[in-house]
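Justification of computing resources. Each target in the renewal requires a structure prediction run like the one illustrated here; the chain below, 95 residues long, is used simply to show the kind of job we budget for.
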Amino acid sequence: MEVTTQLIEKSFRAYYRALCLYAWDVVKSEADAEDVVQGVFAEMLERCAEGKRQEVEDVKRYLAVSVRNAGRRWLRDRQGRETGVDVEELSAEEE
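Resulting C-alpha coordinates:
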Protein backbone atom coordinates (compact mmCIF):
# COMPACT_ATOMS: atom_id res chain seq x y z
CA MET A 1 0.00 0.00 0.00
CA GLU A 2 1.37 3.38 -0.96
CA VAL A 3 1.76 5.87 1.87
CA THR A 4 -0.19 9.01 0.96
CA THR A 5 -1.27 12.04 2.95
CA GLN A 6 -4.77 10.58 3.08
CA LEU A 7 -3.46 7.32 4.53
CA ILE A 8 -1.36 9.23 7.05
CA GLU A 9 -4.36 11.28 8.16
CA LYS A 10 -6.56 8.20 8.44
CA SER A 11 -3.84 6.35 10.38
CA PHE A 12 -3.30 9.32 12.68
CA ARG A 13 -6.98 9.35 13.59
CA ALA A 14 -7.13 5.58 14.04
CA TYR A 15 -3.86 4.85 15.86
CA TYR A 16 -2.65 8.05 17.54
CA ARG A 17 -3.81 7.22 21.07
CA ALA A 18 -2.57 3.62 20.94
CA LEU A 19 0.78 4.77 19.55
CA CYS A 20 1.10 7.34 22.35
CA LEU A 21 0.55 4.61 24.92
CA TYR A 22 3.14 2.46 23.16
CA ALA A 23 5.63 5.34 23.08
CA TRP A 24 4.95 6.07 26.76
CA ASP A 25 6.06 2.52 27.53
CA VAL A 26 9.43 3.43 26.01
CA VAL A 27 9.96 7.05 27.15
CA LYS A 28 7.90 7.04 30.38
CA SER A 29 6.51 10.54 29.84
CA GLU A 30 3.13 11.43 28.37
CA ALA A 31 4.29 14.68 26.78
CA ASP A 32 7.43 13.10 25.34
CA ALA A 33 5.45 10.12 24.05
CA GLU A 34 3.12 12.49 22.21
CA ASP A 35 6.13 14.33 20.75
CA VAL A 36 7.63 11.04 19.56
CA VAL A 37 4.40 9.94 17.86
CA GLN A 38 3.80 13.34 16.30
CA GLY A 39 7.38 13.33 15.05
CA VAL A 40 6.84 10.00 13.29
CA PHE A 41 3.74 11.32 11.53
CA ALA A 42 5.49 14.60 10.68
CA GLU A 43 8.39 12.72 9.07
CA MET A 44 5.94 10.68 7.01
CA LEU A 45 4.18 13.85 5.83
CA GLU A 46 7.51 15.48 4.95
CA ARG A 47 8.48 12.48 2.84
CA CYS A 48 5.16 12.68 1.00
CA ALA A 49 5.59 16.42 0.43
CA GLU A 50 9.04 15.76 -1.01
CA GLY A 51 7.60 13.14 -3.35
CA LYS A 52 9.37 10.31 -1.52
CA ARG A 53 6.35 8.08 -1.17
CA GLN A 54 6.93 4.58 -0.01
CA GLU A 55 5.13 1.28 -0.02
CA VAL A 56 4.28 -0.46 3.24
CA GLU A 57 2.63 -3.82 3.67
CA ASP A 58 0.98 -3.14 7.03
CA VAL A 59 0.69 0.51 8.07
CA LYS A 60 -0.16 -0.32 11.69
CA ARG A 61 2.97 -2.46 12.06
CA TYR A 62 5.06 0.14 10.24
CA LEU A 63 3.86 2.84 12.64
CA ALA A 64 4.49 0.69 15.71
CA VAL A 65 8.07 -0.05 14.66
CA SER A 66 8.67 3.59 13.71
CA VAL A 67 7.37 4.81 17.09
CA ARG A 68 9.45 2.24 18.98
CA ASN A 69 12.60 3.23 17.11
CA ALA A 70 11.89 6.96 17.50
CA GLY A 71 11.33 6.45 21.23
CA ARG A 72 14.62 4.59 21.56
CA ARG A 73 16.44 7.36 19.65
CA TRP A 74 14.79 9.92 21.95
CA LEU A 75 16.03 8.02 25.02
CA ARG A 76 19.52 7.64 23.61
CA ASP A 77 19.72 11.34 22.78
CA ARG A 78 18.35 12.29 26.21
CA GLN A 79 20.88 10.10 28.00
CA GLY A 80 23.64 11.70 25.98
CA ARG A 81 22.47 15.19 26.95
CA GLU A 82 22.23 14.26 30.63
CA THR A 83 25.72 12.78 30.77
CA GLY A 84 27.28 15.35 28.45
CA VAL A 85 28.57 12.54 26.24
CA ASP A 86 27.83 12.50 22.53
CA VAL A 87 26.24 9.09 22.14
CA GLU A 88 27.13 8.98 18.46
CA GLU A 89 30.83 9.02 19.40
CA LEU A 90 30.61 5.97 21.65
CA SER A 91 31.75 2.67 20.24
CA ALA A 92 29.52 -0.37 20.54
CA GLU A 93 31.54 -1.60 23.56
CA GLU A 94 31.22 1.70 25.41
CA GLU A 95 27.44 1.77 24.94
